[in-house]
Structures are given as structure tokens and as C-alpha cells.
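Example A, followed by Example B.
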Amino acid sequence: MQTAPKKVINGWAMYDWANSVYSLVITTTIFPAYYVGITSMGNSNGKHYVDFFGRQFINTSLLDYALALVFLIVAVSSPILSSIADYRRNKKVYLRWFCFLGSAACCGLFFFTPQRIELGVILFSLAALGYWGSLVFYNSYLPDIAAPEDQDRISAKGYALGYAGSVLLQIICFAIIVKPVWFGLDAADTTLGVRISFLLTGLWWFGFAQLALRVLPLPSLKERQAKKNVFTNGFHELSIVFRQLKQLPVLRRFLLSFFLYSMGVQTVMLVAAGFSKKEIFPEPEDEPKLLFTLILIQLVAITGAIVMSRVSKRIGNLKVLIVAVIIWIAICIWAYFIQTQLQFYALAASVGLVMGGIQSMSRSTYSKFLPETKDTTSFFSFYDVTEKIALVIGLFSFGLLEDITGSIRNSIVALIVFFILGLLALLYTKRAVSRKEPLPGSRAC
């Protein structure tokens, strides 16, 4: 196939620009710092319990459990929805609705105050459902619009645009929070700037997503109506994909390795702010330093995604992923022992170098291993389900270890184990590729 016109490629990448603000502002920086801050007030013990509909949880563990539930819902529902989307050829419709759900929930977080913990957690969960639910349909466009030799570059372009856009909005939000008087806000209301940041995130996500939705291809009405009883056909399509996976040993092994190291990578990204706030930046006056450091991670990640894409052309995707996972293992061991803010700055820069690259490389490597098929959404739903189940296990393990030991630092041990297992599985995958000729388009792996 030929790569789609530049207008379509740029439009596809713009969805990364649109939705990555959720990942940075809500998942990684402002929301976690705000949530930990307001749920730590009045708690004299180090565990910082919070009430949620009459039941007590450690504050950070509650968010871990909430996200684990969201990812379980996405993992169960996305294969059905994506199979239906493949049969009706209307994946853009699902992308649009998940985008609307997530962006609306972000806007709703404007009303999240210290007196409305339940509302905040529920809207946070709905925003996550919208974000992660949309990604399976967004990712599945990659093999539809890009030739195999261009997929690394285009995937990296999406991530780079995403990091750039999210950092831009993050800087704006940072200014609103630190200098509210510049924007005519009441400095006495310490939550207003943060809540405006949530509102801006939702508006940014919804607004810029329209640029992508306008140009992404939508098949003809005749093709979309070609299949009937789509719910039954969706399950039938899943059974076909399952049978195909049995005949694709390299793809199966890669999915196993992706599953294992994703338990580490994605969990780190989702819990990093909570860990940093509790262990490194516990005082309210430290929050600007924390936000600045998390912005630094995103800036470095842009470079990391581009560098890994270029290195993969020389040594292959799998070798790049193996090196990245080894670096992740070292980072987690280092994180367990850090004590000072200066050490954390150096650690943050290291995380940025591999964070964007490993996500971009994983997406494009999987795309290269796919067989020739029009039902790319169904195959990417397996990729998505693999990631979501990994997140369910990773987040639940991280939260449970903190509950059991009383220290979020001890939860890092689980991440180290996940990365080591992922490394072994990647070596197992590389061994299979060396023995057998890869699929067309996958020679760079």
C-alpha cells in the first residue's frame, strides 16, 4: 500500500496533539498533585486515608484501583466495539464518541473541590475511559494510512506532536496556577487555577480533535452498511483473529513481551506524580518544582521518541525495545533509593528519554508484524486489550503493595519484576524472528 496524503497523516497526528493534554495534565501532573494535596490535608499519619462513599482508602491506592477498573472495562468492551467498527467501517464514529466522553469529563473536573472527592474520582475515571477507549480506534488507523516503511516515522510524529501540544498547554496551566493574578483570578481561592486547568484540558482535547476527525477517512455508506447483525459478526470476527494469532508465532511472542513490560511502563506513567508528591515533594510550596519537573519529562520524551525511531532504522525495532527495557529496569532500581529533589531531576530526565520512544516503537513494531488484512481495528483491539489488562494488573499490584506495606516506595519492586519479565520475553521474541523470516514490512524488527 501507499502512504496516505500529507493532509491525512498530519490530521491523524493531530489527534495525538489533542488528547495528549489529558495524559499530561490529568494523568501525570496537575490532577495527581492536586488530588494528593487536598486528600492529605488533616491527615496526621503518612498513609493519608480518604473517604469514598463511606469506605476508607489510602488516597493514591484509591486512584490506582479506580484506573484498574477503567482499564478492565476497556479491555472487555474494546474487542466487541472494534470488531463492530471493522464490520461497519465506522471506527471514526467510535473515536468521536470516546473523545467527547473524555473531554466532557475533563471539563466537569472544574467542579472538583475538596468537598467533592467522589465526584472528582468518578469524573477522573470517565475521562480515563474516554481517553483509553479512543486510542484503540486511533491506533488502528496507522496501518490504514501508512506504508510499513513509513510507520515508525509517522508513529513517532504522532507522539512528538502529542508531547509538544501537551507541554504547551501545561505551561499555560502552570502560569495560571502559579500566577493567578496575571489572569484576573482570585489568589485567595487556591483551587481555582487548578480547576480552570482541567476545563482548558477538556476544551483543548475536544477542539483540536475536530481537525483529525475532519480528515480521517470514512468508507462509503454502501460499504458501511454491507454487514448486518454487527454484534454477532463482531464476535465472529474475534474468533477469526484468534485463529490467525495461533498461526503467527512472532506476533504472539511480541504481544507477550509487550504485555509484560507494559505492566511497568504504563504504571510508572500513571503513578509517577503521586509517588513524587508523597516521597520527594511533600510540601505545598514544592508543587511548582514538581510540575516543572514533569514538564521536563515531556520535553525530553519528544527527543526520545524521534531518536528511537531513527536508531531503529539502523539496528531494528526489537533491539531498540530491548535496550529501552534495560534502561527502565535501571530507572526503577534507582527510583527505589532516591531521596533528594536533585536526584529526582536526573531520574526524570532519564524517564523522558525512554518513555515516548518505547510507546512509539511498540505501536509501530506491532503494526509491522500484522498480516495483510483490512480488519486492522480488530487486530489493534488485541494490542489494546493486552495493554489494558497489563495496566489492570500493574495498577492493582502497585496499589495493593502500598496498602500492605504502608509505603508507596515498596510498590516499585513490582515494577522491577514486570520489566525483567518483559526483557526476557523480548529476547524470546527476537530469537523467533532470527529463526523465521518476518512478515512483509517487518524486516526492520
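Example B, a separate protein, is given below in the same form.
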Amino acid sequence: MPGRDDRPGFGQDVIWRLQAAAFATLIAGLRALGLERASALGGRLLRALGPKTSVHRTVLRNLTLAFPDMDPAERAQLAMAQWEQTGRTFAELTMMDRLTPASGRIEIVGAERLEAIRTEKRAVVFVSGHFANFELMPAVILAAGIPCQITYRATNNPYVDRQIRANRARYGVKLFAPKGGDGARELLAGLQRGESVALMNDQKFSEGPEVSFFGHPVNAAPGPSRLALRFGTVLQPMSVTRLPGVRFRLTVHEPIALEATGDRSADIARGVQAITDFVEARVREHPVDWFWVHKRWPKAAYSGSSTTLA
């Protein structure tokens, strides 16, 4: 809800409430369909509508940057397939309480690593990217009994944001650390209490160390590496792969241990590159599972000749 000091005007509040009502209706409708039918519907809709939007050009440019040697026809097929994956994920997000480990739909590889974190009461920095249904990762972490701070980006509409938070609470995600200064303080406090933190580290960042991603320079957020170095803990990568029948394989990978050499900037930069290399490797393994719709590379990369669409 808006606070007293930042109350919207009457017109804006009405628009927000109407949007929230439409969002609630959408959630209710999808949940009524059931998981498999809703997932299939979301996939069909976005496969049909996504290519008609301006975002489709971003998808194709991203694929060209990542896979310049791929046949253009193959890239076009991949672009269509990723829209279906994205549509399925959006629909599934409305009923994640039906996609917990208890559902039997998630195969967990490396579950012993989560068990060790829990039993040893170690705080780690979980890192990942937007792979397949990325919301499975916090659900699995919390289902494993690991106290963890989960970051999220609040929506502009406070009424919709409240619904999103309530929907996440259905499947155990109850710790929210809003991004920004307050969020950073919450993450630090959580680690000091012995809680883990979970961060996505695959989206565009305007500052931070420059690293290589698919052979192109990008800036990447240093936060996860900073936290791991500050608290003397590891980066714990995770990924998700979509399987047929609204099923998934979640992998808890080998931890990334960062070395503190005394050159803090260089140590952080190495950690950021290690995370970026991890994300790139997962995208290369299962390109259809990544969230291709955002502009990950800087403007200069998109204006280069390597992004020419065939």
C-alpha cells in the first residue's frame, strides 16, 4: 500500500486498483485451469504474440550476439521456442505452490550440497540466472530448510506488488529484501545472523566490473562476490532446466570459492567473471531456457555489425 508521504493522486490510484483487479482475475483464471493446462496456454499465447512485439527484435539481436555462427534459420527457431518457454514460466508463476519439491515435478541434482549447508548452518551466497522457471530455485532452497534472504524488485503498482508477495508466500518465500540501500542492509544483516542470501546475476548492470560474456564486454553486478568475500563464504551456483510435462531438473553446482589476495577490486572482479562464466556455460548448454528478452549487452554491442539480422 502507498505510504502517507507518497500517496498517489486519485486518478493514479484508480488505475492501480483496476490493474490489480485484472491481475487478480488473471491469476484466478490460470489457477482454475490447473498447472499443465495453464502452462500450455501461456506457452501458446506468448509463442503467438511475442514475435509480433518490438521485443522480438531484441531476442534476435541477443541470439546473434551470443551465437554469431548459428544458422539464421536455427536462430529464428530458437527465438520462437524461447517465447513458448517464457510464456509457460509466466503462467506457472501464478501457482508455484503446486511446483514445490513435494509435487514430485522437480528432480534435484546435488541435493547433498543443500543438506550440507543446512546441517552445518553455513551461510552462503546463492547465485543464478533467469533459467527456465527461475522461481523454483528459492522454493527449493527454502524447502531444504535453509534460512535465506530472497531479493525481489517491487512493481510500481503497490496493489499488484502485494498480490505478488502473497503469491510467493504460498510456496515458502517469506523473506523479502527490496533492492537498493535498504535491501543491501537487509542482506548484510541476514548474513551476520547466519542466513544465506540468493541473488540473480545475469541482467544488465550499468556499473560494476567489466567482464566477458559470450566474447563481448559487459558490466556485471559485484554484489554477490562482495558479500562472499566479506563473510568468507562461497558462491553457490544453481540452475534450472525445463523437462517435458511441466517437470524440471534443478542442479546445485560445485561451489565457487573466492580467493582473498588483499587486492579487493581484483578479487571481486574475478568473482564476477566466475559467475558470468557459469551463466554463459548454462546458456550454451540449454539456450532455450534462458530469458532472452532483456538487453544484457551494452548499447555499443547492439549497434555493431555483429548484430545484423539475417
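On Example B: The two ends are 47 Å apart (CA to CA).
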